[in-house]
Design a protein that fits this description.
The protein is α+β, with helices and mostly antiparallel strands. The chain is built from 5 helices and 21 strands. Strands 1, 15, 16, 19 and 20 form a 5-stranded mixed β-sheet that branches. The protein has a 4-stranded mixed β-sheet with strand order 9-10-11-12. It comes from Bacillus salacetis.
């Protein structure tokens, strides 16, 4: 990092993030500044779902205090990530307010079923992942979520096979108590998917397998490791962030720099994804201390160069991508060693950026 650096400014994604056609790009923010409505349960820092715990039968449940229950017993809901399929075929998280229930994990999978309870909540261009009529139970023990489906689970199109694996895995692993997933049909464990025969292993059903995997240009996968970065997609007026898992060389020493480079390289042609990293370059090696990464960029980060405004999509993609890395909790950004940055609203940015509580939150 440059010795003449004054002070790193850190940017914050707030609950007041842009909303287009009822869909928020990023939900959540600093709870000290923005209090959630009384009828909505938001996530605590570092948690995946507010009030989530396991009951004695291994189900993920939600809980509220007696005071909260008395205040709004019938209207409470939990912001839950559902990994759905968009119009371009990408598996994308959409965060919706689902009714409170004794088994949040089971409910999350039920909301992945076509023609099920999610049908009237789907954003434009999105569809559910699991075949219509599929029934499910979920049991969680020792970090593994066992998802047991009815026979209807097998009635999917071949091209959806890997998308189903990614969707179910990423939906269930949003809960802190779930590290990996096991699939069953009518009580029998699956070792391969029933239509195209995709092998299922412990690695297959954890986040290590990635999502929307892009291996283009990679000759030898064994000499690489995955990193997940976020690009922008649009469907009409609906703008949202798409996770894409790319491969980087095992010889890469600085994982943070590798993530930034993937963002700079962009999604590639014919991917139907957008990036605000054109012309962006790192001027110094990233610095990581106490969970905070500090980055010094050139002026390419400015969405408006004359006014020196930091692009919202640039910042959101950067924070989402870097906080996918273990140990990264916040992101500080400088331009040419300086910290005088403003957002697209003309506001001076001075608060630390952490990963937003709700990604692609849907507002009704």
């Amino acid at each position: 990092m440059s010795k003449k650096t004054k002070a790193a400014i850190v940017l914050t994604v707030l609950t007041s993030s842009v909303y287009l056609s009822g869909c928020g790009l990023l939900g959540g923010g600093e709870k000290a500044k923005i209090d959630p409505p009384a009828d909505m349960s938001y996530l605590e820092e570092g948690e995946k779902v507010d009030g989530v715990k396991e009951n004695s039968e291994g189900e993920v449940t939600s809980s509220t205090s007696t005071e909260e229950t008395d205040a709004s017993e019938s209207a409470e809901s939990v912001m839950t990530e559902l990994y759905l399929i968009d119009s371009n075929g990408y598996v994308v998280s959409q965060t919706l307010a689902l009714p409170k229930t004794e088994s949040i994990a089971k409910q999350a999978l039920e909301y992945l079923v076509a023609d099920g309870p999610v049908q009237n909540m789907l954003p434009n261009g999105f569809r559910a992942v699991l075949p219509a009529g599929t029934e499910v139970s979920v049991n969680i023990k020792d970090g593994t979520a066992v998802a047991d489906f009815s026979s209807e689970f097998q009635n999917y199109q071949p091209e959806d096979e890997k998308k189903i694996l990614e969707s179910v895995t990423w939906t269930l692993t949003q809960f802190e108590s779930v590290k990996k997933v096991e699939l069953r049909v009518n009580g029998y464990e699956l070792t391969e998917m029933p239509v195209n025969g995709t092998p299922i292993t412990q690695e297959t059903l954890s986040r290590k397998v990635g999502i929307n995997n892009d291996t283009s240009g990679i000759a030898d996968l064994t000499d690489t490791h995955p990193v997940t970065v976020y690009f922008v997609s649009q469907n009409g007026d609906n703008t949202y962030y798409v996770p894409v898992t790319k491969r980087v060389s095992n010889k890469t020493d600085n994982k943070v720099e590798a993530v930034v480079q993937q963002l700079i390289d962009g999604p590639g042609p014919q991917k139907n994804l957008l990036s605000d990293f054109t012309g962006v370059a790192l001027l110094d090696e990233p610095s990581v201390k106490d969970g905070q990464v500090t980055l010094n960029f050139n002026e390419g980060v400015y969405g408006s160069f004359e006014e020196k405004i930091v692009s919202e999509h640039f910042m959101n993609s950067l924070v989402l991508s870097l906080t996918e890395q273990e140990g990264i909790e916040s992101v500080a950004v400088m331009v040419n060693g300086e910290a005088e940055l403003v957002n697209e609203k003309g506001e001076t940015l001075s608060e630390p950026v952490t990963r937003p509580e709700n990604v692609n939150a849907i507002s009704f």
